[in-house]
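BUG: 3D viewer hangs when loading the predicted structure for this chain

Environment: internal workstation, default settings.
Expected: structure renders.
Actual: progress bar stalls at 90%.

Input used:
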Amino acid sequence: MKKHSLAVAAVSLLNGCTLAPSVNVLGAYFPGWLFCIVAGVSLTVGVHMIQSKLNLGPWLAPAALTYPVLTTLFSLVVWLIFFQN
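Structure tokens produced before the viewer hung:
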């Protein structure tokens, strides 16, 4: 019985093993997460430029915590918008 339950648990973990979304760029395929990270970093740089011009530095403090969180947030939002099934 123990072997059976272990096999069922192992097979249920394989449910998410599908092909990763790839993007064709001039004949070369790149993983979708790479574009999401680039978009997340770009959007975070945009937020930094806007807050610098508006002198809103204290609103995004501490920067060492805020900017990685913003990058992650933007990357995940881009993933949900462009790579949802």
